[in-house]
Specification:
- The structure is a single chain.
- The chain has 477 residues and is an alpha/beta fold.
- It is 21% helix and 19% strand.
- The strands form seven sheets. An eight-stranded parallel β-barrel has the order 1-2-3-6-7-8-9-10, surrounded by five helices.
- Strand 18 and strand 19 form a beta hairpin.
- Helix 6 packs across helix 7 and helix 7 packs parallel to helix 8.
- The longest helix is centred in the middle third of the chain and has 16 residues.
- The site of ligand QV4 has 21 residues, from loops.
Amino acid sequence: QFNPNYASGRTTMVHLFEWKWDDIAVECENFLGPKGFGGVQVSPVNENVVAASRPWWERYQPISYLLTTRSGNEQQFADMVRRCNNVGVRIFVDVVFNHMTGDNVNARGTGGSTADPSNKSFPAVPYSNLDFHPTCSINNYNDKYEVRNCELVGLKDLDQSKSWVQDRVVDFLNHLISLGVAGFRVDAAKHMWPEDLEKIYNRVNNLSTTHGFDTGARPFIFQEVIDLGGEAVSKNEYTNLGVVTEFAHSNSIGKVFRGKDQLRWLINWGPQWGFLNSDRALIFVDNHDNQRGHGAGGADILNYKTSKQYKMASAFMLAHPFGITRVMSSFAFDNTDQGPPTTDGQNIASPIFNDDNSCSGGWVCEHRWRQIYNMVGFRNIVAGTAIQNWWDNGSNQIAFCRGSKGFVAFNGDSYDLNTSLQTCLPAGTYCDIISGVKSDSGCTGKRVEVGSDGRATISITQAEEDGTLAIHFESKL
Ligand code: QV4
Ligand code: CA
């Protein structure tokens, strides 16, 4: 439950928010597998309510556990999981079982099922009003009974202590395991009792050996608990059950790279900043909620719109050994309800890929930005090494080695960085994987000359597109 079950040598998942299953299958084969991504978090797979104007958040309002959504049907989902596993990329499903939909007259689902939410009737599961907590709303986050037994924004709150509900959820999760998924993001875990979750997790099957997992492998479980302090429910209540989303990481990294804190303080990045232990912390710069002001963190959270700082924060997260890393991959938005790009207002459009790997057609595809996917590769290559030779200039210029395998430098000051630093790498010429890529003909970016003493002149001017420089032993020319 604590192990992502990645194929060997891989370390990082990407959230392909609102992507279609057919597109994810192709992306695994063409891009994620070759570039060393370990897994994909997919949007909720089970049937959700069809909401007017099709906001992204309709997928967090379940109607049933049929596997039909705007991303595709069960057969397409199964095909995607198989094809991604075949190229070493795991699938993690965002599972929503704290609640069903909110009040909704004549509710109809993406799979054609109907429901009467106001009477807590969901015949396609089936659930009746006996399976839910009595109606009350969550207003006071200092009362853990209210947080767990009342309705989050009016969403009908399931009672996970009931054996009928447990059975339905376990069946749903086991169905997904039988199709070859590697684990789950548990939505709204804060709003469920840890003892109920424990009962459910304990009944979930081991991963499927027919899909290539080791005998006895447990599904990876990462639980969405937003804990920035000051509430009744603590993230620590969930760490014996699985990994927990570390929102304090998202919040702090946003502050640092927005200039509200100095980069030199990153020297003790990790639990000393109030984060969970490394093996329990699922970390990210932004998620699908806080990148658009839902959830927690507010204006300090970075997203694709502030691209230089976003790439620097992402590079730091991926270069630093702390945590289990997740990269966000977004669609462009102007308002916080807006759903994904569509062909006709209803059906989700496929991303369009450009020659430089980037996406268009309304898709941002941060995971296809060179500065991000090359750092996913960096993290794989330096895995298992520690930080050494930390350097800083006393403010916002920092650098460190990862063992003798990689070196990274950041310039967050408004003046140039140009100095001789210890890279810990063998002598030679290296290609900076932020400004370019190593290719057959050499390097399309900056070159770094490492001397026999391991030192090199490192330059990141204030005017450069990116404030990061990174080299590793495989980027040697
Ligand atoms: C509205 C009113 C309510 C009223 C209700 C009455 O705002 O005051 O009680 O009508 O019917 C959508 C609308 C919301 C609406 C609700 C019910 O935005 O205005 O309530 O539907 O119709 C996502 C979105 C929500 C969305 C929800 C369901 O963020 O805006 O609500 O999906 O579609 C806390 C939790 C944390 C949660 C986070 C957002 O601790 O668990 O808030 N994060 C997860 C997901 C998130 C998702 C949910 C939980 C719910 O990451 O994406 O919410 O599944 O911090
Ligand atoms: Ca609840």
